[in-house]
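Write out the 3D structure for:
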Amino acid sequence: MSSGLAPTLIPNPVAIWHGAIENISERASPCRYLTPTQWSAMRESALDFCDRLGADAHRLGWTAQQLFGVHPEHGTLRVDYCGALMIAGNRVQGVDADRIMFERTAARRDKPGQVWGAPIWEFKAKGD
């Protein structure tokens, strides 16, 4: 047997994102000002994004905060802290280095001075 280093498991960020969103019930909004109906649509769009475009987003350097971030106290009410997928719940059409494209709009991550909140699953864990 070789005395080389044992292989290490490298976590798959997209699987972590997907699992974390999936673990938040679609019927129980994680944020006080986000209705369960709005959350259900947002959750479904986020899971779809992970399945279809998550690997591309990760390869392009998108982070959990830039995609799923929410304000640490006010959740989705403060959209200026929200990640691209935590604003409207629309299905993503495409992803590139600085934009997430929706059917009629885009979310950008290259705004000077942008502050991102923690991923919504961390907000949920703290209890709203």
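The chain has a mean pLDDT of 91.
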